[in-house]
Amino acid sequence: MRQRPARPSKTTAPWLHGRHAVAAALANPARRLERLLATQEAEAALARLVAKPWPVRAERTDGEELRALLGDQAVHQGLALLAEPLAPPPLAELLGVTTGPVLVLDQVTDPRNVGAVLRGAAAFGAAAVVVQDRHAPGETGVLARAAAGSLERVPMLAEVNLARALETLKQAGLWVVGLDGEARNTLRGIGLGPRRAALVLGAEGEGLRRNIRAHCDELARLPMVPGAVESLNVSVAAAVALYEITAAKLEKGETP
Predict the structure, then answer these.
(1) What is the DSSP string of 199-252?
(2) What is the DSSP letter of 34?
(3) Residue 123 CB: number of other CB atoms within 10 A?
(4) Does pTM top 0.85 for this prediction?
(5) Mean pLDDT rounded to a whole number for the chain
(6) Residue 143: predicted pLDDT
(7) How far is CA 223 from CA 60, 91, 161, in A?
(8) 175-209: b or e for each residue (b if 16 or more CB lie within 10 Å)?
(9) In which band, very low, low, confident or very high, does the pLDDT at 120 lie, cut at 50, 70 and 90?
(10) Fold for domain 15-83?
(11) Closest CA to 139 of 117, 156, 120, 162
(12) Confidence band, pLDDT 50/70/90 cuts, at residue 231
């Protein structure tokens, strides 16, 4: 008899869902996997992305059971994977073994936005995404699906004190730049040069908090058509900012 999946509680591991999120988690040796639920069609599609054998056996399910488990709004594509949350290393340790810019999110609470930021971070070689633990979403199925597999590639670190995390970044030699639409200089205009950057972004509309702004080495804006829009979605702003850094390095013949 097929076992019916139990609804997750706040104390259980999250159910990841969606083809790319599940495939990336299956291929990540750092993941501790518990259960994989799949429709017949979804299992066949998943096998084309990640060759069997998988670390966990697929249990047959159907769309009705997945809707009962994940909710009507989840775009699950016939897959759900129960997996322990990832455990990234401490920030100072990670900075010592990585290159590339770091993204810091100041009270960005929408899991879809954070997931999209992770996707952009992976595309442009960011070393990590740092969030504040009390004012940011945890590792959820919604966030993982929006990240489209990037949650497995870019560490997401939750810090108790974001201002202290910025000081840790400075001590590791990173130039901490807060993105502010009212800043005098553009991001490329401040001339980062060979310096490794940490980009700090606030929630759309609210921007950076005063205390976080004060801990930035510099404030910069993205070059935008005056009066076209009031602000950009944080995930779009993050991707544009990372592109600016990458493009500037390529123009100078440097490795991004």
Answers:
(1) EEEEBTTTB--HHHHHT-SEEEB----TTT-S---HHHHHHHHHHHHHHHHHHT
(2) E
(3) 15
(4) yes
(5) 90
(6) 96
(7) 51, 30, 30
(8) bbbbbbeebeeebbebebeeebbbbbbbbbeebbb
(9) very high
(10) 60s Ribosomal Protein L30; Chain: A; (3.30.1330)
(11) 156
(12) confident
> In angstroms, what CA-CA distances link 242 with 24, 82, 128, 155, 217?
23, 32, 12, 16, 18
How far is the C-alpha of 179 from the C-alpha of 216, rounded, in Å?
A: 10
Beta bridge partners, 81, equal: 16, 36
- pLDDT score of 6 more than 60: no
CA separation for the pair 157, 11 (Å, rounded): 19
Mean pLDDT over residues 159-168, rounded? Answer: 97
**pLDDT tens, residue by residue, 47-92:** 999 999 999 999 999 999 999 999 988 999 999 999 999 999 999 9
Please return the burial class of 52, using the count of CB atoms within 10 Å of its CB with bins 0-12, 13-18 and 19+.
exposed
H or E element that contains 15: strand 15-17
CATH number corresponding to 91-251: 3.40.1280.10
Distance CA 161, CA 209 (A): 13
Look at residue 178 and give its three-state secondary structure.
strand
**Comparison of pLDDT for 49 and 2, the residue scoring more:** 49
Q: Domain limits of the chain?
A: 15-83, 91-251
Q: How far apart are CA 121 and CA 242, in angstroms?
A: 8
Write the Ramachandran bin of 87: left for phi over 0, alpha for psi from -120 to 50, otherwise beta. Answer: beta
